[in-house]
Amino acid sequence: MSATTATAAVNASAAVLDVRSVSMNFGGLRALNEVDLQVRQGEIVALIGPNGAGKTTFFNCITGIYVPTEGEVRVTPRDGRTVTVNGMKASEVTTLGMSRTFQNIRLFPTMSVLENVMIGRHCRTRAGILGALLRDPRTRAEEQRIVEESYELLKSVNLHQHYQDQARNLPYGAQRRLEIARALATNPFLLCLDEPAAGMNPQETLELKELVLEIRERHELSVLLIEHDMSMVMSLSDRIYVMEYGSKIAEGTPEEVSRNPRVIKAYLGEESHA
Amino acid sequence: MDWQYFWELFFGGLTRGSIYALIALGYTMVYGIIELINFAHGEVYMLGAFTALIVAGALGIYGFPAVAILIIAAAVAVIYCAAYGVTLEKIAYKPLRDAPRLSPLISAIGMSIFLQNYVILAQTSDFMPFPNLVPQPEFLEPIAHIMGASEVLIIVTSAIAMAALTLFIKYTRMGKAMRATAQNRKMAMLLGIDADKVISLTFVIGSSLAAVGGVLIASHVGQVNFAIGFIAGIKAFTAAVLGGIGSIPGAMLGGLVLGWCESFATGYISSDYEDALAFGLLVLILIFRPSGILGKAKTQKV
Amino acid sequence: MQGLKKSILVSLWFMFLTFPLMVIRIDSLNGTIDWRWENMLGMGAGIFVLSFVWRFMLARKEAGRAAAAGGAMSARGAWFERLRSDPKAAVPAMALIFAVFLALPWVFSTYQTNIMISALLYVMLGLGLNIVVGLSGQLVLGYVAFYAVGAYAYAILNSNFGLGFWAVLPIGGAMAALFGILLGFPVLRLRGDYLAIVTLGFGEIIRLVLENWSSFSQGPSGIANIERPGLFGMQLSVNEATTYIYYLILAAVIVTIVAVTRLKNSRIGRAWQALREDEIACQAMGIDITTTKLTAFALGACWAGFAGVIFAAKTTFINPASFTFLESAMVLAMVVLGGMGSVIGVSVGALVLILLPEYLRAFSEYRMLIFGATMVLMMVFRPQGLVSPGRTKYNVPGADGVGADAARPAAGGNA
């Protein structure tokens, strides 16, 4: 599959996300324990593990929602400089080029589908209060550009038919795709997907997989995803990290991970893709 | 240092603080259970004072003895406030239980305005004199120069009410159900706790305590009008936040701390900004330590 | 039958509940009790009817919710939607409304014009608060504090330094905006209900300062003899001045409507709405919520400041009593009634809530009662307000114009 052919080319390139022994404590509870993780340019990396393993906490730590207690999160945006992001605001992290979706869909429910994507363009556009009040040609042009770019993104996730609907009226699977489109609108170099296939039927999951692959090609980005759907993870990912109780217990290609006895014991068990 | 003045202020603060604590308990209990600032709670307190005033007036005309009037008026006020509290919840909050968080707050503000004007229309917008019903027994003579009988009554009654509440919450079945609901409403419901009943009970208890506070303060200050609930409500809310909203001992502690702060600040500094002090304190706590003295900080779930 | 029994019980309950306050009135001078039993009967009958209405409305709301979930659009209000979206209908309608407002001072007495002036002031306040509450979703209960800042800015600058209305108008707005930011900074971390209470406290502090800092604000007695706005140095009679101020505030309202509409449909306005809908997602989409909140605070406050300057110029006398919490609550009631986020709705809400009690004298006594009840009932039955915010139309090249009705199973085939 395309996933495996891409891997070879990708392995040589530099890490766009380099997480070094990140830990997160909530009071006395250690939710993450010295987790290391790298995502290289153009890779699709999956983060798997049983419920409560700390995957979403890890996402929140690297995207600026939480500040990790210890460790370092370094990213290398397209411009090539390397930045340490822990301690940065979530909005700054997104502006750097790391964008995410949420496990329990967080769209802007009463705004339209198009507006949801337009919000994603916010950090890539400039118009301020004065522009809004005066509506000068430059502001109008920028606004029109936002509309058009957002509509294009809706097309790429096949939601352009619904651009005027309220986001909350979309079916579940469509809401997931809208979240992806919205995240893409921020123009990321790394897209973090938190259980994108949750609640989808097998057909939708298959489409989602194709969509992720296509997005990677078209937007030249890397993907980090948390997912429970094993067939999707195994066929889509270049590499997989496995977590349990807040610690990383294994990493490697899908082949390696699925053969790792610790992983099988902890998580895959009979679910292991036979 | 003028010690007598100090003790006067100390007990003045303790008196105020006890009242704040009584009202604050209503805020904190309701917040604990349904995470709502019951903005109309101050109005329930005002209704308690007004109801007691009317009952006391009527009984006075029929020539009842002062102590009997005080007890009957207080009892009636407690019953009515409990009834108002429950009704309030059914009308203004229950239909909004799944609404966005600001909806019940706006509804509560509306209710507060409504109740104030209900009292204006049904009775009067003027200050009404409240008869002095507390006898001055002889055994209090030695401390009469620092605190009067009504102050003693306030402190003692509040202490008893709070002790009773603590015991109730700790040891009774319903009390345990309340604590369980406060911790996790969904789980409590799954375990067979009737959340509606718990919520109603919370309003009954909170409103009754406010009524007790209303009667006590009315007989202490000697006058009542429709607006007393607003300021008292905000101050009691400040007390609840100060102690850590949702925490019952916190509300008691917060009430006393606020009472003392006010008393000493007005006594030693200036009384011009008496009300601003509470507001300022509220703003400062919410900004610097929103979890209050005894509250726990919450992490947000994503 | 079930309903009948329920209603009787409810009405009995309310007769009990309102008994002491509604029935008994103590005449302490003569030592008699005035028993007003007729109130109890009225209450019983009224509640009996109302409880039916209440249940009917609740059932209708439930039905409405079910219908919305099924994707059906109600036909109700279709004419209004047309009026709003179809320029052929909207332009003449707006021209007509504008003409009516232009003609008002010539038809009305000075007294009535004065009422219109205050109604329009509230429209302005409502629209300003709408930025903060309706668009960005930050419940501010001390809004009137910014109004006070504007009013006192003009009063003090005018009486002490002789600055004129036009000079102070921008200063008042800027000062209010500054206060908005000053308040905004510390409360940034607070959400929802806590923010509401802190802003309430802030509003009350401002009022108490104005009351107590006599050397600055002349205390509770207020500042009198504030200059009316000048018109090219002409001396205007009271009637002429009223008409002048009427047009001035009308212009201000129009500017406000245009400005708020433009803001709402801009990049900034979208960020406000995203903030209202989901603060976490908003941050995750690269929006700095600090600046977003502060701009909303500043702009909302700024409008209150403008309104305050105009208010001081109109009444020529201000004192702290004009800036109580009740005033803030009234403006909030207008926003709630009209529909949070809706420019038309808030304007209509403000006009209705000010003019109705003025013109229906029977109501005036019940004014605040109705305000309170409105807030409760709107939240319970129609939280979106009378007018839900209009959808912004975007010019999307290549779109088929009509967005498909509620999305059914998304189209198959990969993207």
Task: Describe the overall structure.
The complex is a heterotrimer of chains A (274), B (302) and C (415). With 274 residues, chain A is α/β, with parallel strands linked by helices. Chain A folds into 2 domains: 1-97 and 188-274, Rossmann fold (3-Layer(aba) Sandwich), CATH 3.40.50.300; 108-187, no CATH class. Chain A has 11 helices and 10 strands. In chain A, the strands form 2 sheets. A 6-stranded mixed β-sheet of chain A has the order 6-7-8-3-9-10, sandwiched between helices. In chain A, strand 1 (15-26) and strand 2 form a beta hairpin. In chain A, helix 4 crosses helix 6, helix 4 packs parallel to helix 7 (172-185) and helix 6 (137-156) crosses helix 7. The longest helix of chain A has 20 residues, at 137-156. Chain B folds into 2 domains: 30-138 and 147-226, no CATH class; 230-293, no CATH class. A two-stranded antiparallel ribbon of chain B has the order 1-2. In chain B, helix 9 (228-243) packs across helix 10. The longest helix of chain B has 32 residues, at 3-34. The mean pLDDT of chain B is 86. In chain C, a hairpin with a 4-residue loop joins strand 1 and strand 2. In chain C, 71% of the residues lie in helices and 2% in strands. Chain C is mostly helical. Residues 71-75 and 401-415 of chain C have low confidence and may be disordered. In chain C, helix 6 (110-135) runs antiparallel to helix 16 (343-359), helix 7 crosses helix 8 and helix 15 crosses helix 16 (343-359). Chain C has a two-stranded antiparallel sheet. Chain C has 2 domains: 2-63; 81-381, ABC transporter involved in vitamin B12 uptake, BtuC. Classes of the chains: A alpha/beta (274), B mainly alpha (302), C mainly alpha (415). At the A-C interface, helix 3, helix 4, helix 5, helix 6 and helix 7 of A face helix 11, helix 12, helix 13 and helix 14 of C.
